[in-house]
Amino acid sequence: MEARLNLFENNVTAKFFRYINSASKVLSDSSLPAATQELVKIRASQINGCGFCTDMHTKDATAAGETVQRLHMVAAWREAKVFTDAERAALELAEEGTRIADAAGGVSDEVWANAAKHYDEEQLAALVSLIALINAYNRVNVLVRQPAGDYQPGMFG
Questions:
Q1: Mean pLDDT of 41-54
Q2: SS3 string of the chain?
Q3: Which of 42, 44, 112, 145 could form a disulfide with 134 if both were Cys (CB 3.0 to 4.6 A apart)?
């Protein structure tokens, strides 16, 4: 499989990724736990069918010490006992934030209140920004059919 457009050699997309990668750095430097960030990126990428990002973030999470069991359970997090209440709240917000078009009212007040029980205002801001950012990455990669499977942890940073 080959991508429809070379994102890494195209001047416009290369510049675009430099800008959104700097936004990603702001989030990785935030107080939102790194493990939570990876779980959110994985779940949104699964929902969006982005193989490239799913591959990247499962490998990055593994390299950072995440367990294989938890990674296998991300898609079924509601039934899994391996996630904290805070991680569950983040995953639920990520799902509703990713599936905005599926919900007439967007993100429900209940889901927001649950996330707010576990995260302070800075962390909520990081979580909202992270959900928006991973959805942007997913959309670019899905649009161009970016192949998945070759990512090595750290190759972009």
A1: 98
A2: CCCCCCCCCCHHHHHHHHHHHHHHHHHHCCCCCHHHHHHHHHHHHHHHCCHHHHHHHHHHHHHCCCCHHHHHHHHHCCCCCCCCHHHHHHHHHHHHHHCHHHCCCCCCHHHHHHHHHHCCHHHHHHHHHHHHHHHHHHHHHHHHCCCCCCCCCCCCC
A3: 44
